[in-house]
Design a protein that fits this description.
- The chain contains 21 helices and 19 strands.
- Strands 7-6-15-16-17-14-18 form a seven-stranded mixed β-sheet. The chain has a five-stranded parallel β-sheet with strand order 9-2-1-13-19, with helices on one face.
- The chain folds into three domains: 5-41 and 254-347 and 474-541, FAD/NAD(P)-binding domain, CATH 3.50.50.60; 132-225, Orthogonal Bundle (protoporphyrinogen ix oxidase, domain 3), CATH 1.10.3110; 350-470, Polyamine Oxidase, Chain A, domain 2, CATH 3.90.660.10.
- The protein is α/β, with parallel strands linked by helices.
- The protein has helices spanning 14-24, 69-78, 87-92, 136-142, 144-159, 167-175, 177-183, 185-192, 201-207, 213-223, 249-262, 309-318, 323-328, 339-347, 400-403, 434-447, 479-487, 496-499, 506-522, 528-531, 537-541, and strands at residues 5-10, 32-37, 49-52, 55-58, 112-116, 119-123, 126-129, 241-245, 266-268, 272-279, 282-289, 295-299, 302-305, 350-360, 384-387, 396-399, 415-423, 457-470, 492-494.
- Helix 5 (144-159) packs across helix 6 (167-175), helix 6 (167-175) crosses helix 7 (177-183) and helix 12 (309-318) packs antiparallel against helix 14 (339-347).
- The radius of gyration is 24 Å and the shape is globular.
């Protein structure tokens, strides 16, 4: 029997666990000895589900959809689609295209729900379509004069295109300067802590591919057509139907982790990788520290990393070089990590993230849409409310009741609200204690007139997330150099959002892991396919 090939996977998020499952499923554990090192006790990374007093929090809002059929099939194989109505479907008389033979959400937890997305923009105490659309609601909110300014500004942008060498110009070319200044400039600065002029246009190219006023109007027109469209015909930022695990996104990744273990993988939690050992031009081992401070070395043939590139390079730099071998000129002696590569890695910026969950008795606003909702009284149907009003620090407001009724302990009589704040680790907002940050969030929700005040709040929870969003400024423009250096280690594969310093959706992170595993299985040298996931417009927007 051939000797097993050993693979160490750093990180138990979507990319790392996808790689682990691709290696171990279908008897793969007979060929591969797989070990996953997860620095925390939880799985899913930013896609984990936080549990608090019977309620569950999705800390970033994760719609499960992809233009990549491999990923859709992958998810469906882990959690099958619902074959019977969920709790809210029954109460609201909602009808989906149920999966023949699929599980009943009322009888089992291992099920994926079909959800309808509703997202709106909060601006100047108005709720507007997301993304911005030239609807009567917008025209009424803006008034005649402002509407004319927006219209002429957009027409001007159609004729006078700006060089897309920064995010500001990217948005102006698609929406016009007036609409950009009202809805994108302040919001983008809120999210990233930098003005859009300082951010690479690459971010816009990944997140709003193919989306402009024409695309929005086209989508609005097609909504009126009787023929039903599937998600492959809609721009990604406009997707209206998605799948969602009954108990939140973390449920799927917890299920994947358990299946990997069942198939023979080793998963070690509280394992913080501190050193990456290099030898003979390859990676030979990693050293990790456990919760008790004990250091362990783990050798392997192949390494898949989803840890932040900053941490990866510093772990390489921390591993001692064999000075005797280096001085003697011994073949294969590891050299010190080039200082310029360490500089690039340490200069890569991140945006950190805080979600504050507030369990409230009721919302002050009423549902004026034609979409029925749960609640007593019924709540608004939004999954997200984008706060593009510069008068508020909060970036988005989530209503977990609408993602899945099973996230909320008493979904009929309480509303579980998540306020998302973008910040920097160590800044004034990050260093607030729980009580201060919660009081701040309650004040903002009250000023927005979404609740009456503190008397409506029954419970709260604050979740801090480091390095949530890789950012596209500072040394980001030197990423190709860093990728080339990392690729020089033939047995190292960088995958996932932080592993590639790319603001991927989870399906793109998964795809990068699938490509990496394919390379290992096929003994493929080039890693271009691994790095190229979500870099071409056709990948996300068109099949």
């Amino acid at each position: 029997m051939a000797q097993k090939q050993s693979v160490v996977i750093i990180g138990g998020g979507p990319a790392g666990l996808t790689a682990a499952w691709e290696l171990t499923k279908d008897g793969g554990a007979e060929r591969y000895d797989v070990t996953v090192l997860e620095a925390t006790k939880e799985f899913g990374g930013i896609s984990r589900t936080v549990k608090h007093n019977g309620n569950r929090m999705d800390i970033g809002g994760h719609r499960f959809f992809s233009k990549d059929d491999r990923i859709m099939r992958w998810w469906k194989n882990i959690l099958p689609l619902q074959g019977a109505p969920s709790y809210d479907d029954k109460k609201l008389g909602r009808h989906h295209d149920l999966e023949p033979g699929g599980p009943d959400p009322e009888q089992t937890d291992k099920v994926m729900l079909k959800r309808h997305r509703v997202s709106r923009i909060f601006w100047n105490h108005h709720f507007l379509d997301y993304p911005i659309s030239l609807t009567p609601g917008l025209l009424k909110a803006l008034g005649f004069k402002l509407t004319m300014e927006v219209g002429f500004s957009y027409l001007y942008s159609m004729v006078h295109k700006l060089p897309e060498d920064n995010l500001e110009n990217f948005y102006i070319n698609r929406f016009g300067r007036k609409l950009y200044s009202m809805f994108f400039e302040g919001y983008t600065a809120k999210v990233w802590g930098r003005p859009p002029k300082e951010i690479s246009a690459d971010w816009g190219a990944q997140r709003v591919k193919g989306l402009d006023v024409v695309a929005v109007l086209k989508n609005a027109f097609l909504k009126l057509m009787p023929k039903k469209r599937d998600n492959s015909q809609v721009e990604t930022s406009l997707i209206e139907e998605f799948w969602y695990p009954k108990l939140g996104p973390g449920q799927l990744w917890e299920t994947v982790e358990q299946q990997c273990v069942d198939q023979g993988a080793t998963v070690i939690t509280d394992a913080k990788v501190t050193e990456i050992v290099r030898e003979h031009g390859t990676i030979s081992a990693v050293r990790y520290v456990d919760a008790k401070g004990k250091s362990t070395e783990l050798k392997a043939d192949e390494f898949i990393s989803s840890m932040p590139l900053k941490d990866l390079l510093n772990a390489m730099d921390a591993a001692p070089v064999d000075d005797r071998a280096a001085k003697s000129g011994k073949a294969g002696a590891a050299k010190a990590v080039p200082k310029d590569m360490v500089t690039v890695a340490n200069g890569l910026p991140y945006r950190d993230f805080i979600t504050i969950g507030l369990l409230v008795k009721r919302l002050r606003i009423t549902n004026t849409t034609d979409i029925p909702t749960l609640g007593n009284p019924p709540i608004v149907p939004d999954c997200w409310i984008y706060v593009q009003d510069p008068g508020y620090k909060v970036g988005r407001v989530q209503l977990f009741n609408n993602w899945s009724p099973y996230l909320v302990k008493d979904v009929d009589n309480t509303v579980w609200v998540g306020l998302e704040y973008f910040c920097q680790e160590g800044d004034e907002f990050w260093t607030m204690n729980d009580e201060e940050a919660t009081a701040f969030a309650i004040k903002e929700l009250t000023r927005m007139r979404l609740i009456n005040g503190p008397q409506d709040v029954l419970d709260s929870h604050r979740e801090l997330v480091k390095k949530a969003y890789p950012a596209y400024f500072d040394t980001y423009d030197r990423m190709p150099e860093l990728a080339e250096y990392l690729d020089s280690f033939g047995n190292l594969y960088c995958v996932g959002r932080n592993g590639q310093h790319r603001y991927n959706n989870q399906d793109h992170s998964m795809a990068s892991a699938i490509e990496a595993v394919g390379n290992i299985k096929d003994c493929k040298t080039s890693k271009r396919n691994v790095w190229s996931v979500n870099t071409e417009k056709s990948y996300q927007e068109k099949k």
